[in-house]
Amino acid sequence: MKKEVLFISRGESFMVNAIIDNLKSGGYKVSRIDPVIKELNENKSDHKIIVFYLGDYVEEISDFLTFLKDVCIEEFKYLYCIGSKEELSVIRSNVLIYAVRESYERPVNVKTLIADLDALIEQHEGDSAKKTILVVDDDVVFLNMMKEWLSDKYMVSLVNSGTRAITFLANNKPDLILLDYEMPVTSGPQVLEMIRSDSELENTPVIFLTGKGDRESVTKVLSLKPNGYLLKSLKQPELLASLDEFFEKQKVDKIIKIARNFS
User: Fold this and answer.
1) Interatomic CA distance for residues 42 and 244, integer angstroms
2) Which of 127, 160, 173, 174 qualifies as a cystine partner to 132, CB 3.0-4.6 A?
3) Rounded CA separation 91/166 (Å)
4) pTM of the model
5) 187: Cβ–Cβ under 8 A, 6 or more apart, which residues?
6) Which residue, 51, 46, 40, is CA-closest to 1?
């Protein structure tokens, strides 16, 4: 991960410029934008780290906060917020809270911020060998829980609709997709059908997530021939064990296939 920061603030101020100057002194390349959807959309692809300097205007920009939340969750951005106690309270009451990695009350200790960013980059460099998992679910609370449960062991990306899953997959190829079976508009089965009909995606493993564990429901899920299914009621240790078993089996199957080719 590059030492680059997208800094969001409404205009410039002495404090904003001081933080940006300190980030630059810490070796970071900083690009500043206003909290405007168009500006974020034009600059988001070049940055993994976003620092958001809040202001008393934060209650007036709910559309921007929602867009920022979607960008951070769907494109796996790391969001750091700086603000007053009241401004951070607004963020905590907004769905954006599910995308925030860390928040700091003003006046912020910039050395702490830089140390946290440095630790993130160091961790990310150690994550390069991790398997990548895309989680698709319309429940944002569930997505946030999955991120917390899986991120220590896997590189996790999140999207909250079937349509956004297809958009994500146009530019990203995860090692596994955990796909909610029941979603509005574009359901899990429809997403699976689109994946299997795409020559570049057809071999991507897909495991359905379902809240129903009765025999009839499970049979219905498996009839679509995913790579498996997991109940949403699983506890974290059970979920991790199931994923470990899946990837281990995948590794063994690959070894067997290679051995057969040489026999």
Assistant:
1) 38
2) 174
3) 29
4) 0.61
5) 162, 181
6) 46
**Element at 118 (helix H, strand E):** helix 110-126
Q: Which CATH number fits domain 4-125: 3.40.605.10, 3.40.50.2300, 3.30.420.40, 3.40.50.720?
A: 3.40.50.2300
The rounded mean pLDDT for the chain is 86
Q: Report the distance separating Cα 175 and Cα 236, nearest Å.
A: 20
d(CA 190, CA 181): 9
Nearest to 245 by CA among 218, 227, 257, 261: 227
Distance between CA atoms of 43 and 97, rounded to whole angstroms?
A: 21
A 10 A CB-CB count for 174 gives 21
Dump pLDDT digits (tens) for 161-197: 888 888 888 878 899 999 998 888 888 888 988 998 8
Give the pLDDT of residue 104.
94
Among 55, 59, 60, 49, CA closest to 27: 49
| 73-113 confidence digits (pLDDT tens) | 777 788 999 999 999 988 877 766 767 888 999 989 999 99
What is the rounded distance in angstroms from the CA atom of residue 57 to the CA atom of residue 87?
Answer: 9
Asked if 173 and 243 touch (Cβ cutoff 8 Å), the reply is: no
- Is 192 within 8 Å of 226 (Cβ atoms)? yes
- Homologous superfamily, domain 130-262: Response regulator (3.40.50.2300)
